[in-house]
Amino acid sequence: MRDAVVTSEGDRIRWVELPGQEPPRVYVHGLGASSPAYFTEVAVDARLAGRRSLLVDLLGHGLSDRPEHFDYTLDSHADALAEALTAAGASGAELVAHSMGGSVAVVLASRYPRLVSRLVLVDANLDPLPPTPGAGGSAGVAAYSERDFLAGGWAEFRESAGEHWWATARLTGREALYRSAVHLARGTTPTVRELLLGLPIPRTYLLPETDGPLPGADALTAAGVRVVPVPDCGHNIMLDNPGAFTEATAAALGS
Description:
By secondary structure, the protein is of the alpha/beta class.
């Protein structure tokens, strides 16, 4: 396990690193998840193996520190990740990023272009979401006030999340889980979608085939973003259908 200090208060991001050739490949998880848990199986697949690979846990999640003072905006997550990648000497990296991690990766590529050479977004959040009481995911968490979430809303979330998601979400700081969800639902200005459209690097967006056409797919395609439906999966594409995920990701990365 590797680590780097990423805030002025000394908080550390940690990652599991697999040795291999440069340029590096960086895997970034979603809300309440962990990159080693979600990506190890596909990262060591023969179609993706052989690259130096960093399976990074964002601040507040998994193996990384869970500071209560951090605001957990998408911009702040991207800044902290940039510090970790800089410390690791991982410039010009290919990012494979899921859900909220995809949003963070787009912001990272926009703010720190030297760090990112290519993006594979895995059912990433591109647009703001209205907070929705009782909904799953970030929209449901964002419907609480922080006080109510910390006082007991997190337990309601645990029940709705299910055993699989809770296995990693329980490792996430409660402030980190709440604030990350709120800011993911709130999005950025310009939006993540607008930032993605303007990036000059190769970009691929993977989504579950059963979700139907991706909203705004025509504009993404016109801007050079490859939109690739993946069969037989839900939101967690790399876990639900690792074979198809690996095939699509390897094609996107030219592996």
